[in-house]
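Supplementary Methods, section 5.1.

A reviewer requested that the exact input to the structure prediction be made available. We therefore reproduce it here, unchanged from the version used in the analyses.
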Amino acid sequence: MSDVVITVENLSKSYTLGAMRRGHTLADAINEMFRRDKNERAKEDERRTLWALKDVSFQVRQGEVMGIIGRNGAGKSTLLKILSRIVSPTAGRAVIEGRVGALLEVGTGFSSELTGRENILLSGTILGMSAAEITRKMDEIIDFSGIERFIDTPVKRYSSGMYTRLAFAVAAHLEPEILIVDEVLAVGDVEFQRKCLGKMNTMTKGGRTVLFVSHNMGAVSELCSHAILMQRGQVHAIGETGDIVAEYARLQRGTEHGVVFDENENLPAAISSASVTDRSGIVTRTLDIADEVVLNFSYRVREPLEGLQLSAVISRNMNEIVCTFDSDGLDSIPFHEPGVYRASCRLPGMFLKAGNYSVRIATGTPDRLMMEVEGALTFDIEELSQNTYHKGYRKERVGHVVAPASWTRDRVE
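The structure derived from this sequence is encoded token-by-token as follows.
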């Protein structure tokens, strides 16, 4: 159809994991190649191949805001890099009609030695704009970014938040027909995020197309008319945003016994399952504000490891990080022999405010992240107790936690 601006057909992308070295010279490599038979080499190549994307197909129409959601490692960022022409696909094709402005991870697209102003000029030139067009947009871009004081400073001295502000301002104001935005907006503050969402809304009303990747389901629901749910490098579902977000939530909940993860035999250690329970061990998604919240983990270690840790990052509304807990203070098992282990993290009652929470879980050593799952667990805190003081008032207070402080008071006169 004539209004289709992005067509993706059977798109696949594979990466080859590091090869096992048995020698150090070219002669060693040649001898090894002849020593192994063809079938053995094919099996090893298959084991070393990681498919970041596999047979992905969809279309996006002009003026549409398409959300792309899924857990970390689902293939979202790889897809956007292919559409932005940063990497090439292994198979399939992506046809894009129009000029693309891409905002991917922080550090992409700018020259670190140039100032913010010089990078605006460079970005506009790359997009094919004339010097007069860029100059006409310059003040608007700088004003939107909110970093006027630093616009003539080399961007290598910018914080990640400043970099993100300028990058979005450039991508949104240099008149791309298609804007591609990755999770990088999470770096900015809440006020700037709202500003960016408003700008993208304005762009789509003007007929421009937006691809929006985010873990913030509230932002996806507000901005996107349709969404794509990706899982393990493939399209799991495409449809109206409400239906896709609901399906994503369903997948996140897992079974009544918790969430079970796919086994990855290439990892030295990996979390195999996780659950949220109350203090008695009953798996649940709803807890009273006064109840203890228990996060349970089962993990497998495949080789001797020192310094292995678990971590849980708790967010409210799938976006606002509340707190992080890790097991670096757990000295009972400083060294892990191969085997299956269980661990629990207990949060006291009267700590988290009423609301919806998600948990990003991870495992690894201080120098290597081995597994990370965004939104692996979800649960709700509700004010059900009859004996909590100021019932209802706590929910309206600013902040995320209700843990009471210890007060003292003395009359001095």
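The first helix runs from residue 26 to 35. These observations are discussed further in the main text.
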